[in-house]
Amino acid sequence: MEKPSEENTKNEPWDWKEYYELIGEKGYTKNLEEAVNYCEKKDFALDIGAGNLRDTKFLLSNGFEVTPVDISPESERLAKDLNDPNLTMFAGRIGEFDFPEEHFSLVNAQGILFHIHKDRFDIVFDKIKKSLKAGGVLCADFIGEHDDWNYKDGIKYILTKEDLDKLKQDFEIKSLHDYEADESEETRLMKAVYKNKPDYNAKHWHHIDIIAIKK
User: Fold this and answer.
1) What is the DSSP letter of 198?
2) Residue 82 and residue 13: Cα distance in Å, rounded?
3) Closest listed residue to residue 108, CA positions, set 168, 165, 50
4) 74 or 197: which carries more pLDDT confidence?
5) Structure pTM?
């Protein structure tokens, strides 16, 4: 894929309200239910890139105290509206979050990790890893090498076979779903909101969904 211009790769301060309204009450991430079943204790969970809080709500309903992390003001507003004592919102970028060490029993990260600049990914992911207790569960999705965002000199993080082997040094993989598609619900919705954003034109997706337990 041809590399987008610098102007089109900037992290714009988008208003996510319309996207959240379009996506509505779409169900929680499907493999999150399986991930929760691997938790020895349902105490503290971190939901990175929490968006419209559908995964956060699922985790709350399963007895977790949840920390959603999202830079969107709309996500922060939705958290305030929930007014749940077991929810502590962090309204900011993932790199700004002060990860407590060995604290969470579950870390959920959907549609966010591949947006971390590839030069910073190891730093951020190391903090995520250290924030999990031994036996803690990681439920996350990545994009693979066949994805259209894997352009030469791109800035998005791409999970390679070597990276997956490295992940297995610290985690026991319980589930790995590797699939590809030329269109997705996310693409359709993002195109509806951001009609002039090249990143969300029709594209080929290569998703890798992982559930893993920290050794």
Assistant:
1) G
2) 24
3) 50
4) 74
5) 0.83
